[in-house]
Amino acid sequence: MVVANIVQAVTMGLRQELARDKNVIVLGEDVGLNGGVFRATDGLYKEFGPNRIIDTPLAELGIVGVSIGLAVNGMKPVAEIQFSGFLYSTFDQLLSHAGRIRMRSRGRFTCPLVVRAPYGGGIKALELHCESGESIFSHVPGLKMVIPSNPYDTKGLLAAAIRDPDPVIFYEPMRIYRAIKQDIPEEEYFVPIGKANIVQEGDDLTLIAWGAMVKTCQEAIEKLNSKYSVELIDLRTINPYDAEAVISSVKKTGRCVIAHEAIRTCGFAAELIASINEKALLSLHAPVVRVTSPDVPFPMAKLENYFLPDVNRVLKGMEKVMSF
Amino acid sequence: MTKRVLKEFKIEYLQVLDENGNCDEALMPKLSNDEIKKIYEMLVLIRVFDQKAFNMQRQGRLGTYIQFKGQEACQVGSAFALKDDDFIFPMYRNSGLLIARKHPIVQVLQYWSGDERGLKSPQNVNNFPISIPVGTQEVHAVGAAWAAKLRGTKQVAATYFGEGATSKGDFHEAMNFAGVFNVPVIFVCENNQYAISVPRKEQTHSETIAQKAIAYGFEGIQVDGIDVFAVYKAMADAVEKGRSGKGPTLIECFTYRMCDHSTSDDASKYRPKEEVEMWVKKDPIERLEKYMRKKGLLDDLYKESIASRSKDIVEKAVTEFEKMPAPDPKDIFKYVFAEMTNQQKEEMEELFDNQ
Lengths: 324, 355
What we know:
With 324 residues, chain A is α/β, with parallel strands linked by helices.
């Protein structure tokens, strides 16, 4: 066991996979000697050399597009995009190609690619450094979308993503990169893609979150001081999501709050609610409540606290669903 | 203070066969008589195919089809310099290239009829599915070539695109990565003078496409794209260069689209008749025939036998294509991920159990 935060867990996951498979390579801007702008690849350049840990030109479309070609011809590229807000210039590559290669070639070619990117707000960063675009990528067939919320899951999910035979977008919660420390095994383990984590069991209401919002939700639950018995679900994978975990929990509690940093309209809560309506409507005692950011562009630092859902808004959401 | 020339550049143009079929023997690539005949036969075959596919579209037997008439030499000449396990990353105007790369004709027809099974590359041949969004495939070729370099497989990757694609940022990023990582990739630009209706001059202010390579630190060459020997030679040189670790090449094949952009286009609206007539006279197949006649490699009998054999091959493929059973509708779920997701399983059940 070793104590690690989320960034260190990323490094551990990468190191484990680089050591296991010589076709795994890490590429991106400043990932080499510099060790990445968030230090996620710290020390790897020294350990694995410039042919495995590769500094690329400053070109996101190029990084992802070239990684697709690398993946098609036998490599396992793990591309780093410095902030998820810079992923949008790669969208054509991800949507038009990465997610369609297996389908279009009827399995003759595949694209086992991982694209890592820190996401989310709350650190007073510059514009477009705070985005939560998980719904956008989850609306692309053929892409998987994974978001860990703690160091243990980060290492286990990253290892699973690297071994996944299909393209995976791996969002890392920037706000809590260093906020959570956990004992995590140095030896190999996996957290399977597509499986939610029941963080705590409860009977009164189901609270669903992912990424950095899981911590916010935990803090809100603490503040409740056992007023309600809350079942907290960390979704962990947005696409394909664990519908079974969501449905069985909602059937049990009859009440549900979904909290995410992304804006409300077409946010992933909407998909979860549709699924609940289809499969657990008659178990509901109250409409499902969404705690999300409003439908506006992510504001700059001075106003971001008004935009992002916080502990109080999650608490309000829980009160709303309980008092219906 | 000083002002001096830091660097000067030049761009070469290569033509081996002139329009009358006269060959510059000093530039002629090493090709046996049998190989020349094979090249000729492939040129004829893909032209017969192209015309047949066009006719079938008009008869409602195919969907939208993208013709390549006039560009046969670009596609056959370059394909002949590649090995099966080299990669191609083609564009939509590359049906001829696919056929020259052992893609069964029946599959090419399948693709243009709206059946993705047509894109499945034959085993041991690396034909990547053609790219529909313009110029988005060049970066893939760079990645595949880079993988070959990292894994030591000795493969090269070739990507095909038109001059219009060079206006996109993707082209820049691909060329830049190729130069920086010195990978065995060949950029084959089929400069057919028009991106649908927009002429080359309105696409870029560069005098040639080839010169764009200079900015990325590698060689670019312009070849007569209607001269199959010139294309073959430039490609063979670039392949050899790539395999021996000397990096990428940009080949600009200077050619002409002797057809409409697609079966939905009418090029007479934007191209002067005289211009089209001037180019059509340069025809790649007629030019090679003139050369072969002089060399004693072609007579009327041979020419007719190849024409009729090509027709037979294509007709046979058409018959086979029209007998092919429709694709299994469940295929649309089968190949998205290695394993279907629970959501997909439910959707599949809903879609097929309600019918």
